[in-house]
Amino acid sequence: MASLLVLGAGKLALGDMLFILLSFVLLTAAVKKFAWGPVTKMMDARSEKISGDLDYADQERARADKLAKEREDALKNSRAEAIEIVNKAKDNGEDQKKSIMADAHSEAESVRQKAKLDAQRAKQEAMNDAQNDIASLSLEVASKVISKELNANDQKSLIDSYIKELTVNNETK
Amino acid sequence: MNDKYKFIEFLGLRFNVANDLSALIAAILVFIFVFALSRHVTMRPGKAQNVLEWIIDFTNNIIKSLMPDAAVKQFGLYAFVLFTFVFFANQLGLIFQVKVGGYTYIKSPTTNPMITMALALISLLISHYYSVKKFGFGGYVSNYVKPVGFLLPINILEEFTNFLTLSLRLYGNIFAGEVLLALIGTVAKSFGVVSFVVALPLEMIWQGFSVFIGAIQAYVFTTLSMVYISRKLEKE
Known about the structure:
The complex is a heterodimer.
Chain A: H1 2-8, H2 14-149, H3 152-172
Chain B: E1 4-5, E2 7-10, E3 13-16, H1 17-37, H2 47-64, H3 70-95, E4 98-100, E5 103-106, H4 113-142, H5 152-190, H6 193-232
Parallel strand pairs in B: 1-5
Antiparallel strand pairs in B: 2-3, 4-5
């Protein structure tokens, strides 16, 4: 076959063709070993890294969005909470104020009541004392008057009237 | 043109020194180029790594536009080496050509149809190999009678025309470019200083254009190789 081809081509072609084939194959192998292999490997690695980085960036963005939303929600909640706390404090204050006022009112009332009672009692006592004093005084005055001016007749009529009065009093009782 | 070549006989095979030496130089240049650019590979690419990654992305995008993304792993290296090798091979003869004693030693290796055919052969072999691998041998053979049976001869013929058009397009473009370069060079030498002055800007313009053509043809060769591979991997 080889000699046929060589004869057919007038001994011009086959050697050159083989040489070209061989050198081309060797060149391909050398290029693959020294340039194509490392460079394409790096290109693949780079494209992989780029897509990986893009994925990572997407994830990070989603995470950041979520975080920001959470923060916003928390902020909103805390504001509502603060308002609630303030309201509660206000209510508490109002309640306390009312109860203090009520206490004060009732205490004042009781103090006044007590003062009134004391005053009444004092007045009563004073009146009683005065009555006693007046009675004893008038009795003394009367006894003095009586001891000086009462004679036998008068004494008798006085006793009588007194007895009469007693009986009337008894009857009426 | 009427270039003369040195030949070496070895193991009953005949080697054209100009073809093989310049192909070897192109391969070594490609290797030095990518080797120099791929030092200190880091996650944050430097200037050199950026250039290399740009070329890799460029050839990967050729594959992505034709096949599912998984094919990039399969054929990415092949497309990259094919593109850089053809590109360097195309530019080599524009930058320097070495002739000693009437014999050409260094030129663009792609100005020889045997070289381009060898490259096209690699592409087509890969396409057939992966087609058999994907569909099994039966599935691979049955792809020749799809979509309808009477297209069988056309489908078989297409394999050969693919091979020839792929290789000869590259060869023709680069060979024509270098022939014209040589012609303008001859013009420059023909009438002394006057023709030299006239020919110099012409040569510069044509060299620039050839650089452009060389880049375009490297792209076209890689793209069509991938097209043939992708068509072999499709169920019709």
